[in-house]
Amino acid sequence: MTKHKAGFVNIIGNPNVGKSTLMNAFVGERLSIITSKAQTTRHRILGIVNGDDFQVLLSDTPGIIKPAYQLQESMMEFVKSAFEDADILLYLVELGEKELKDEEFFKKITNSKIPVLLLINKIDKGNEQLLSEALNMWQEKVPNAEIFAISALQNFGVPEVFNRIIELLPESPPFYPKDQLTDKPERFFVNEAIREKILMHYKKEIPYSVEIDTEEFFEDENIIRIRSVIMVERETQKGIIIGHKGSALKRVGVEARKDLEKFFGKQIHLELYVKVNKDWRSNERQLRRFGYNQ
Prior knowledge:
Blueprint (H helix, E strand, L loop, with lengths): L4 E8 L6 H9 L17 E6 L3 E7 L9 H15 L3 E7 L8 H8 L5 E6 L6 H14 L3 E5 L8 H11 L17 H16 L9 E9 L3 E10 L2 H8 L4 H18 L2 E10 L7 H6 L5
Parallel strand pairs: 1-3, 1-4, 4-5, 5-6, 8-9
Antiparallel strand pairs: 2-3, 7-8
Helix pairs in contact: 6-8
């Protein structure tokens, strides 16, 4: 009888290297939101992939940055925790990238006692010479890593990486029920769907000043009724989020509702409101409320 394997596979890297795209490619579902802006991922998101004799627990973490305020410090705590419980570490870099932004994290990777898979992503954006140079450079910088060239967006090389992950998994019973897809509750994905649209449609500091709080989530057989509040830090930001005669807020609501209907497979009734929650990004109590400081 084949023994069961299970383990935590944690994905780390700089912002915008495609960690969320890779996570979604592995899971086959859109768990992590994806935008072109840095710091799209704020939390550590777990995606669960089950087979008959394995369970892969994939963890998408925020991009590694130098923290400028309390929220970003909390985000980097999620990254630190990824080193503590990983059975396999996926270090994702972009073709043409030279280094990790934080020296301390880079040392942890090069001194890691667990298997490290270094994935050079977005190879569809380059050529053979660039890839050859990147392979040589990263092999020298991270000699303890197995290196793979991939395009997460095109799903090129992703199945090979996943097969290698399964080979490296330790023997273990499953950590979660076999029909579970993630460790996050439904409201988390509502919040993320709304926040993704704000990241896409608003500029400058606005997306980074926003947090979503889903106050009501009532599910019937054919419809889910949701009431969510968009928190901003300033009164001026509230006006920008709402837009002229509510047009900007309506666009966010319509687009988020479409994504949520796909995700939940049901009709969605979504009510959105905007409130000022002054300086929430630097407030310990507020950050704890939103799940950043455990």
